[in-house]
């Protein structure tokens, strides 16, 4: 499907089919959504597509969310893209690790769509 | 004197106007809060419908027993808020699918006495006891025996291995097994009314998916038990037997 003019692009990286379907349902009304199913593929797609924002799951095969976030920050093309990390366990230790890897913000599962959309708008300055 | 009276009147008018404005601001703020509350409620309701839709879609798209188990795990983690899930399936003593498939070819007792619950899959938890549970034993055995869901009264994460919810997988008045949810995620203190609705839709569609999966296996088993079935398949160019092997392998 062709991208709508003026719409911002969000990359969702998650190995769970359910999470990808859920984020599509939540985001597609306002944004163009592209997806990747592991951390490595997510980083490659981010470099190629330069999305406006990345939604990154923590537990993933090949490269986890923290590693992927560090790789995105190390790459000039993706360094400035806001990253929202999706954590399963909303514990302080995991949040600290998320921020240390360079994420902009985080949400915990189960993700509440109102909260997620508010954070996305905030990150995108909308 | 007169100037002073005029000024006093002006001050009084200004104070009155200020009070009116403050009252109007308070009124508008209240209205804004009400509108936001309505918006939040509508958004939450819309999200809930989206979750129910997603549950149905995800389970309909799941292929094979492992695929159904994985869909259940993902739905519970992403929509309900627990990453500790187990799925038990009811099996007769000689294996439901093969027995029903082969009909008279298998002898032996069947029914409640030979029934047990077999652990189909577990995620993020090692259920106790591992393996199988007798029908009627413990929370899971009771839920399957009675068909009544169990919801723990505790709020909060719960202790390790503690069951938060156990819901029967019912299909056409038969209990095929149960989905067991252990500890909730730390940020999700308890199951809400909406979670109960999602779980209800989840187990009914999961039961249909598992029943279809069993039916496919039964069909394959029935054909494989029929004398000369493979030979007949071979005489038709092998198409029949190839199809059976693929189905049985899912």
Automatic annotation (TrEMBL), chain A:
Residues 9-124 form the Response regulatory domain. The modification 4-aspartylphosphate is found at residue 57. It comes from the Bacteria. The keyword Membrane does not apply. One of its GO terms (biological process) is phosphorelay signal transduction system. Keywords: Phosphoprotein. The keyword Protease does not apply. PANTHER family: PROTEIN PILH (PTHR44591:SF20), STRESS RESPONSE REGULATOR PROTEIN 1 (PTHR44591). This is Twitching motility protein PilH. The lineage of its organism: Bacteria, Pseudomonadati, Myxococcota, Polyangia, Polyangiales.
Automatic annotation (TrEMBL), chain B:
This is GAF domain protein. The keyword Transit peptide does not apply. It holds the Pfam family GAF_2. The keyword Hydrolase does not apply. It comes from the Bacteria. It comes from Chondromyces apiculatus DSM 436. Keywords: Coiled coil. SUPFAM superfamilies: GAF domain-like. The lineage of its organism: Bacteria, Pseudomonadati, Myxococcota, Polyangia, Polyangiales. Residues 66-210 form the GAF domain. Residues 11-45 form a coiled coil.
